[in-house]
Amino acid sequence: MKKYFLMFAIIATSVLSVHAQTENQVEPGDTVPVTLQTSDDMQEDLQQVLNPTFGDYYEGLTKKITFDRMIPPYGLEVTFDKTVHIIFPSSIRYVDLGSNNIIAGKAGSSENILRVKAAVKGFEAETNLAVITDEGSYYTYNVKYADEPEKLNIEMKDFMHDGIATNRPNNSLDIYLKELGSESPRIVYLINRAIYTDNKRHIKHIGGKRFGIRYTLKGIYSHNNLLYLHTQIQNSTNVSFDIDFVRMKIVDKKLAKRTSVQETVIYPLRAYNFITTVEANGTERTVFALDKITIPADKQLIIEVFEKNGGRNQTFTIENADLIRARQINELKIR
After folding, report:
1. Can you tell me the distance from the alpha carbon of 111 to that of 167, in angstroms, rounded to the nearest whole number?
2. Averaged over 26-53, what is the pLDDT?
3. Cα-trace Rg, the chain
4. Which of 32, 109, 230, 264 has its CA 20 to 30 A from that of 40?
């Protein structure tokens, strides 16, 4: 009985195979039927092609990003056996790597030098790198692998140094940092530079002189809840003056006996041309930006500069009356 069933199955399979071959053969002069797709079928096929989405197709209502809003990236080549160093005009605040094929980090104790190299030897897929610096500049790079990169040491020039909006879209917005509040780092930088370049002395009664070193305050300025202090150190000796650190603090004017000293330390947000050495018979200036402050009548702001490995420390005092007379900055004149 099993033999009959097995023979029947073999014959049925052979007949179906021959029938299928006969149907697939088209003889000369035969008419080939054509199946028409409906619009729903075509839409379904299109969806399969575009899933996942690419190009200009997105699910839902979207608006295309035009080229005038694009920040064009720089081209950067990296390799596995050598390190590429990028020097920025100010401290690095943020770094983002597009993939694990590259690694990056600050160079030692330096705040404005970024070292970049390949983590995977000979990687093929192009990746990207983005950097935000302290004064609010944004840099972006397309990174690819090269056995011998053409440029190993790169110096980035900020667009604010020459007034040219390099690597920025025409309608780009400023980058804001938390410690500066509603003021953009770009405006802070431009105000500091304008005060330093203008180099006018509006205040003549605040300063001190000891051991041949004169430390003076040339001006106090205000803009958008920030204060700017323009200071100058003049060295009239034959020995250079090496600066260890500068300290700003609010203290009581008079202290009664057996009263503990109460002081509030003020930390500058930015320092333009912060120098570490004043050469013999030389003069240097610095502009400090700090949060807007006012002090009670019984307190005062003291600014001190300490000499490294020396005792020629300098100090001067600012009263609240001086702070509230700060000169307003006209933003239109500094752009």
Report:
1. 22
2. 60
3. 35
4. 32
Report d(CA 233, CA 285) in Å as an integer: 6
- Is 238:280 a contact under the CB 8 Å cutoff? yes
Global pTM value: 0.59
Distance between the two ends of the chain, CA-based, in angstroms?
Answer: 102
Spatial strand order in the sheet of 92-97? 74-78, 138-145, 127-133, 92-97
Half-sphere exposure of 8 (CA within 13 A, CB side): 5
State which of 33-42, 119-128, 290-299, 317-326 shows the largest mean pLDDT: 119-128
Q: What are phi and psi of 147, to 5 degrees?
A: -65, -40
Ordered by where they begin, the domains of the chain are 67-161 (2.60.40.1550), 188-333 (2.60.40.10)
Contact assessment for residue 187 and residue 289, using Cβ atoms and an 8 Å cutoff: no
Residue with tokens 């004149």: 333
